[in-house]
Amino acid sequence: MIAPFISRILPRLRARLGGLAGALCAAGSLGAAEIGEARQLFVRGEYEKVIATATAEMRTHAAEVEWPLLLGLAQGELGRYAEARTTLAATLERFPFSPQARLAAVHALRAVGALKEAKQELGPLDPQRGGGRMYGTAAEIVARGRAALLFGTDPKIILEQLYDPARKAQPDLRDSWLASGDLALEKGDSALAARTFAAAVKKFPEDADAWFGLARAYAPNDGDAVKAALEKVFAFNERHVGGWLLVAENQIDAENYPEAEKALATALKTNPNRPEAHALRAVLANLRADPKGEAAALAAARNFWPTNPAVPQLVGRKLSQKYRFEEGAALQREALKYDAQYLPAKAQLAQDLLRLGRNDEGWKLADEVQQADPYDVVAFNLTTLRDALAKFRTLTSEHFAVRMEPREADIYGADVLALLERAHATLTKKYGLTLDERTVVEIFPDQKDFAIRTFGLPGGVGYLGVCFGRVITANSPAALGGATANWEAVLWHEFAHVVTLTMTKNKMPRWLSEGISVYEERQARGRDGNSSGNWGERMKPRYRAMILGEDLVPISKLSAAFMQPKTPAHLGFAYYESSLVVEWLIQRWGFEKMKRVLADLARGVEMNAALAAHFAPIGKLDAEFAAHAQQLAKATGPKLDWTAPPGAVLANETKAQEWAAANPNNFTALLETAKAKLAAKQWQDAKAPLLKLTALWPEQHDSESAYALLAKVHRELGETDAELAMLNKVVTLCDDAPEACARLIELAAARKDWRAVLANAERFAAINPLTPAPHRFAAEAHETLGETTAAIASYRTLLRLDPPNPAEFHYRLARLLHTTGDAAAKREVLLALEETPRFRAALDLLLAIDEGKPRKPARP
Prior knowledge:
Blueprint lengths: L1 H25 L3 H14 L3 H14 L5 H12 L3 H14 L4 H13 L3 H8 L15 H13 L4 H15 L4 H13 L3 H14 L4 H11 L4 H14 L4 H13 L3 H14 L4 H13 L3 H11 L8 H12 L3 H14 L4 H13 L3 H14 L4 H13 L3 E4 L3 E5 L1 H26 L7 E6 L2 H9 L9 E3 L3 E5 L11 H18 L5 H15 L16 H8 L11 H4 L4 H22 L1 H12 L4 H8 L3 H17 L12 H5 L1 H10 L4 H13 L3 H14 L9 H11 L3 H14 L4 H13 L3 H12 L6 H13 L3 H13 L5 H14 L4 H12 L4 H12 L9
Parallel strand pairs: 2-3, 3-5
Antiparallel strand pairs: 1-2, 4-5
Helix pairs in contact: 1-9, 2-3, 2-4, 3-4, 4-5, 4-6, 5-6, 6-7, 8-9, 9-10, 10-11, 10-12, 11-12, 12-13, 14-15, 14-16, 15-16, 16-17, 16-18, 18-19, 18-20, 19-20, 20-21, 21-22, 23-25, 25-26, 26-29, 27-32, 29-30, 30-31, 35-36, 36-37, 37-38, 38-39, 39-40, 39-41, 40-41, 41-42, 42-43, 43-44, ...
């Protein structure tokens, strides 16, 4: 192993590096200055000047490895791979002990597919064969570290015992910073990469490569930061091929394919042979159902190295990001045929298979990646997650296999299956679809586990569920960290994705997929079938302002709104706007035409062409939908004045009151006036502005709407009937108002309106079934109504939630079980007595059970 050896030579290495660093700083020769200038030309992308300068300098500085090395690297950046191979082979012959020259020669050989030669030339850099040559200058140590990665050396050892000492010895060596950041990126540790590259750009503020590393590190999580970093990349090197490839990837993700083409054209102008650029062109051709174009692009990508595994791996990864997991998996298998140990392909294939529900092979591959590379963050996360999933319970019905944590499965697993079967019956019939396999649904009580299962990494906060095709992942209410969401609506939404993704063979843009799912939420109208409905995104004051402001996105660019939203509100608006588009298209042209669009997409027809064939050209749709959305926004509370008051007015109580008096129908003024009255406990005075708000805008779907505030006012004033009416408005119009549901349950129980108790307990359970109180009231309601079986089930659920005073509920459950002759009654009464030994009623019941006496339960 390399670790013990490096530990032995590390003190000598540090001493030598320190001495060399001092010597390098002291050196001021003309040759060193010229080399430094040439390096800067290279970093700025002036590759032709580097080639000319290096060619000239090699004649007079034949003993310096830097000049031919720079020449070969510049040739490679321009795609002159054959020339680079020749240059670097000659360099290696002259400088056989230079690890930088050897590593560059190896990469040049690999670029033209000369794998046997590359392996042979790489051999002397094998850490097991390195002997005393494992030390040298800082630049040599970094090159040896990069080579050690190719031999599978533990990345932690390379970071701690090679890169870090090299950087400490020579802080101005940029490659030590870049190598450390690249290693973290390669292993999926974007947080470490971001820290490393952030330090690098402070050290080298005009280094395009350092900024590019930072952009890549931010790519998984922060679109704005990526954009800012890329601006820096192009400010210092407008020809940075890697930067343009990242732009192209981002534009492909956003479904902005013309801009992706432009970015790739820019990259290819500098390097016409870059395999990744041609691979991304193949992705675009595939997405446009252009098989000839795809074949031509793949041929260009493989021109120099026909079995390059990175080409199918990249194409497959991008297709998988478009949810085309079957195609993506096939391409990863192709990559592994070229190189069975190519870990990026094996890791991506593992994720693809898990998303296709082929868990056995997926977990096996994730294990192999983790064993081969313990530092790979995604593989480590997945193998750790597998241990958690092994503890889940699987519930099955005719069309579903649901995996849940056992306790949650006991509490609401049956409700999950019932809801999903209802969604299946409704949506498969509506869309004329037959699903041949069970849909797999995994519900996670830990948000981190959900994120790892879904994205491979922690994060993804704000996502409630994700559908990959026949596999759905979702957060349980326990995972939401105090936030609320209607889990029934979430699962209905995700199953709608199952339907549309299956119908289109996963070939649909993000906006259409999400738009149909939100639209189908609204059509479902929630569990109670209320005529106004209460699922799905609806018009809000914020959305109204966004539509009438500058945030309405044309249909042609709507998918991009999901990729890099400015705020969480903008992401919510993207869902809402997409659903409005779907609703408008169906209302205007009919549902059957929407189904024809889905059928066209399945055949590979491009989205805009499908829209033009069945609705109208995209330009016309953009303009007409914008007018439609604005009309909807203006029709929202049309008698309200929606003008936003100046900030200075709201900050001053006196001015706010004066402004409100001068603008009696202003939404903000009415709402703020009401809130001020509530804060001052002036309940009667708060009524007028709130009643006016509800009269001028009846369709308020927020859990904190004027109806909710009026309910609070009526409660404080003891006006129970009025409070009840307002609360019913809230739960009718909003699908995630647990406080309103809980209060309705209390009021109904006080009035002994047991059917109302049960209805609102069901509403509450659709938001959070993991709270004891609704189950307690439901159990009492069922018991009072003589619904013994349902009461027993409710008490059992309640006891799984560790309620206060469990003895009482064990006793009530025992009493019900005894009336049915169930022997489990004795166990429950003993549990009651274990909690409260002097529980007289429980003692009496125990005696009755032991004596075999029938006993009718008393009413609760």
